[in-house]
Amino acid sequence: MSILAKLRLVLSLGQGIKSLTHGLIEKEAGLDPFRLFSEWFQHAKTSGVALPEAMTLATASKDGAPSARIVLLKSFDPHGFIFYTNYDSRKCRDLEENPCAALICHWTVLQRQVRIEGSVERTGREESTEYFRTRARGSQIGAWASTQSASLESYDQLVRRTTEFDQKFKGQDVPLPPFWGGYIVRPTRIEFWQGRANRLHDRLLYEREGSGWKVTRLNP
Ligand SMILES: Cc1cc2nc3c(=O)[nH]c(=O)nc-3n(C[C@H](O)[C@H](O)[C@H](O)COP(=O)(O)O)c2cc1C
């Protein structure tokens, strides 16, 4: 870690500690959870925490069996939060059977957690293509080569498949695989958690109400 990154982390820790006393106040949080999320995400990105865009994605099968894994938040706007993945993976089998998900962002040094819950839809092919084009060629080839979540004979088999696709697309742009793309989580609940002294943490819950949001303070 560079000296600069370390300095940023120390500064963020200071801000995290300041939040322990100042906290998350309704008047400052406002009525728009996306504005608040944007502010917190920006703060996380400049805080020096590793992978501020990493979030836990929880899904459940049609029988209600839960599973969770980390994915990367690639974009968000007032419609929802977008991540990209392999549509044949275990998470997507769940999402096709039961199109609901929960996301968690946790920014340790800032002592902050955001919990997002809502319905899920695939993003359009155009949007997925646009994002896929921004990925490094190696990651694009990797997306073709990996049958995500399926069993694999050996690591060598994966390397062989990677080489095959590298050859197949030699001298051309790598197209978006038909089995790969984004999901948008359209939230109905977003909860902001700010750590405070003596475990008397702040929890502000935003719940969709018509075209706006209802804000409720929860016990920690
Ligand atoms: C830091 C980090 C970031 C990750 N980002 C993604 C991602 O954006 N999309 C994805 O499909 N998997 C991502 N993964 C891998 C997933 O956690 C998981 O292993 C994979 O998606 C298969 O999950 P599934 O079998 O439950 O579908 C990431 C893992 C880590 C540790």
* CATH homology-level superfamily: Electron Transport, Fmn-binding Protein, Chain A
Task: Classify the beta-strand content into a percent band.
Answer: 25-35%
What is the CATH C-level name? Mainly Beta
CATH architecture: Roll
Largest sheet properties: 9 strands, antiparallel
Rg is 20 Å
End-to-end separation in angstroms reads 34 Å
The SSE order reads HHHEEEEHEEHHHEEE
Give the cofactors and ligands. flavin mononucleotide
Shape: globular
- The figure for the number of domains is 1
SSE topology sketch:
Elements: H1 3-22, H2 26-29, H3 33-46, E1 54-60, E2 66-72, E3 75-77, E4 80-86, H4 90-97, E5 100-107, E6 112-122, H5 125-134, H6 137-145, H7 155-168, E7 180-194, E8 202-209, E9 212-217
Antiparallel strand pairs: 1-2, 1-5, 3-4, 4-7, 5-6, 6-7, 7-8, 8-9
Helix pairs in contact: 6-7
Bound molecules: flavin mononucleotide.
The site of flavin mononucleotide has 16 residues, from strand 2, strand 4 and helix 4.
How does this model look, in words?
This protein has 220 residues and is α+β, with helices and mostly antiparallel strands. It has a single domain, classed as Electron Transport, Fmn-binding Protein, Chain A (Pnp Oxidase, Chain A), CATH 2.30.110.10. The chain contains 7 helices and 9 strands; from the N terminus they run H-H-H-E-E-E-E-H-E-E-H-H-H-E-E-E. Strands 1, 2, 3, 4, 5, 6, 7, 8 and 9 form a 9-stranded antiparallel β-sheet that branches. Helix 6 packs across helix 7. The structure holds flavin mononucleotide. The site of flavin mononucleotide has 16 residues, from strand 2, strand 4 and helix 4.
